[in-house]
């Protein structure tokens, strides 16, 4: 398959077969980067690497799609000895891929 061709065709006993190759969109690359890392700068590098684009171009789109950070809840629970223990509760977002419009 040549680098510029988007399809590859081959002959089988059932006839010609062809596989279509669609490169990822910038939105898909950003969604994947958000699933791989919580740090904005790392997301920019990951998405830029997926798309083979400069980081400056990707940065604006990643910042638009960035989720606002939710503060962690601090729960103070008394222990048996009467001293106070501090427990920090953080929610980790699930890594489900958002559906894209077709």
Total helical elements: 3
Number of domains: 1
**Can you write the helix and strand succession as a string?**
EEHHHEE
Structural class designation: alpha+beta
pLDDT averaged over residues: 79
End-to-end distance: 27 Å
Spatially, the strands of the biggest sheet line up as 1-2
Shape: elongated
Low-confidence stretches: none
Q: Give the C-alpha Rg.
A: 22 Å
Quick one: how many beta strands? 4
Tell me the helix content.
Answer: 25-40%
Biggest sheet layout? 2 strands, antiparallel
Strand content bin: 15-25%
Which key terms come to mind for this protein?
single chain, alpha+beta, two-stranded antiparallel ribbon
Can you describe this structure?
With 102 residues, this protein is of the alpha+beta class. The protein has one domain (7-89). The chain has three helices and four strands, in the order E-E-H-H-H-E-E. The protein has a two-stranded antiparallel sheet with strand order 1-2. The protein has a two-stranded antiparallel sheet with strand order 3-4. It starts with 6 loop residues before the first strand and ends in a 13-residue tail after the last strand. The relative contact order is 0.13. The mean pLDDT is 79.
In summary, what is this structure?
The protein is of the alpha+beta class. The protein has helices spanning 26-36, 40-51, 55-65, and strands at residues 7-12, 15-20, 73-78, 84-89.
């Amino acid at each position: 398959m040549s680098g510029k061709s988007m399809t590859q065709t081959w002959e089988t006993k059932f006839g010609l077969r062809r596989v279509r190759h669609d490169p990822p969109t910038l939105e898909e690359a950003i969604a994947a980067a958000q699933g791989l890392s919580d740090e904005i700068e790392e997301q920019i590098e990951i998405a830029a690497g997926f798309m083979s684009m400069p980081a400056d171009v990707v940065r604006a789109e990643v910042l638009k799609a960035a989720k606002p950070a939710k503060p962690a809840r601090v729960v103070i629970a008394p222990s048996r000895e009467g001293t106070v223990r501090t427990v920090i509760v953080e929610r980790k977002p699930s890594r489900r891929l958002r559906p894209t419009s077709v």
